[in-house]
Each structure stands twice: as structure tokens, then as C-alpha cells.
UniProtKB/TrEMBL annotation:
UniProt keyword list: Oxidoreductase
One Pfam family in the UniProt entry: adh_short
Name this protein carries in UniProt: Short-chain dehydrogenase
SUPFAM superfamilies: NAD(P)-binding Rossmann-fold domains (SSF51735)
Domain of life: Eukaryota
One GO molecular-function entry: oxidoreductase activity
Amino acid sequence: MGFLYSQLFKRLPYPEGSFAGKTVVVTGSNIGLGKEAARHYARLGASNIILAVRNLEKGQAAKEDIESTTGIATDVIQVWHVDMGSYASVEKFAARVSSDLDRVDIFHANAGLARTKFNMVQKDEEMITVNVVCTILLFALVLPKLKESAAKYKIRPIFSITSSVVHEHTTLPQKTAAEGQLLATISDKAFAEKHWDEQYPISKLLEVFFVRQFADEHPAPTFPITLNCINPGLCHSELGRDVPGWGFIVIKAILARSTEVGSRTLVHAGSAGIDTHGQYLSDCQIGQPGPFVLSAEGKKAQGRVYKEILEKLEGIISGVTGSFSA
């Protein structure tokens, strides 16, 4: 009932205010929520907007569309390449953020995907690689730039991960895995296919786990960056384009928010205060994650997930998690 009330009756505030002088980075921004969030930032005067996309041609089309609808100068938006399914691409993109940008005020890790079939990418199932591992790798790699921006400009940058209410649709069946084998079990083909309806929710659950555990270990008063995650709700976008059947199409037709309305949740998270550090945001306010996250069993799984993610990141780039220290 909470989901239905949110989708049908909640009215999300239209973004207002000024982002003059600010630099905003949005991954997955050639379409959907990322593109509409970038349009809001452009409309509200952001000085520099980076559309981080896998397809540069589509990114350029998004740039031109935003420019034509907002009337901004052609030098405000830049289109940069990043493939969130590639460790090397994420590292290259983060290096460019560090070298080419004077400051970063807001970073939206919005790129994500939902698949209907199992596929290994790098060393994990594809949704785990893109939605979780590479997203958090990107966070670790751009943190030094965010900290530099915080110190130089006396600001508190925000890194926001686009998550989902569907994290409530799983209690993590892999939680019984042996110590140190949780992520490996999540990406085990046989196990994943047995619980395939939960695979996308699991990827979103892991995002929520990471954000909460990171804030537990790096509380807001001692850390200069705000890390939060959001639930944009069910929106009209291309995220579920691979989902078969008419059922999902009908549900979206009845319940889904417009892409623009959904994007308001991103802009809210990007302009939120220190009180959102480690928080799950929904309907443009601090919300409560699902019951499993708040349970004792969930808390234990959260700690295990966090530990294994850090170990995985270190296996990709030695020393990368050193940026997590205050």
C-alpha cells in the first residue's frame, strides 16, 4: 500500500533554486532520469554539467536536446564516455574527472541496468558488476576529487546513488553462504538463475547496504562528503526494456511516474543536506529502507557485504579504498 500511495498520490516538489557555479556529473544521462535531472540542473544555472554515457552519439543528442529546451550556452554541457561494465573505463573516466574538472559539487551515480538473462561481465553477474561493483569503484576513485573540492571551495559535495524500492523484494537468499563467499554466491550462475526474480532487487539491496555501512564507519561529522542513495519510484524509462510480457507494460501505464517527475528525486538528493549522509531517500525526503535492511539478520549481512566489496575493490586496484579514510 505504501508503494501505491507513493506512486499515485505523492506530489514531488519541482526543483527550484540556483546551482550557479556548481559542477554536476551524471552517469547514465543520455536518456531517462539522468537526462531529465541534467535538464533541471541546466535550467537552474549549473555552470558545468558532465553527461557521462556509454554511447557518445546518444549523449551528444541528449546535450543538444537539453540546450534547445533550456536555452543554455553550448559550453555548459560536456559529453564524456564511461562504460560502467568495465573496470578500465571507470578508472579512465575517474582520472579525467580528477584532471579536467576544477571542482565537483554533485555526482549522480545513476547508470544502472536490469537484465532478464544471466551474463558474466568482468568477474560478476552483469547487474552486480554495473549496479554495485563499478558504481562503488567509481565512488572510491572520485572521492579524492570530491575531498579536494570540499577543502578548496568550503563546500560539502554529494555523491548520490540511484537505487530502488525493489531492494525490499529480497531477503538475500545467498546470506547463508560461507564467510567471504557472499558476492561469489550472488554471481554463481546456478544459484542466480534459481533466484533470478531477485537478482535485480539484490543489486539494489547491496547499494543500500553499502551506503548505510559506509556512513556507519565514516559518520557525517568526521567525513567531508555526503553519500546517499535514492528511490525514484517506478518511472517511465528504458530501465525495464528487457522485461517480457504485457503485465509490466500495463503496470507502468497505470502507476509509473513520468521521467521528469522521477528525476526530481535525483535533484533533491543532489541538493540535500548533511543529514542525508548514509540515508535512503524516497519521495524527496529521508525514508526507511525495507524491513530486511533494518533487521538484525540484515545488519549482519550488511557488514559482510561491505567487507567483501572492499576486498573486491582492492583486488581490482590495490590501495583504492584508501580514499575512504577521512
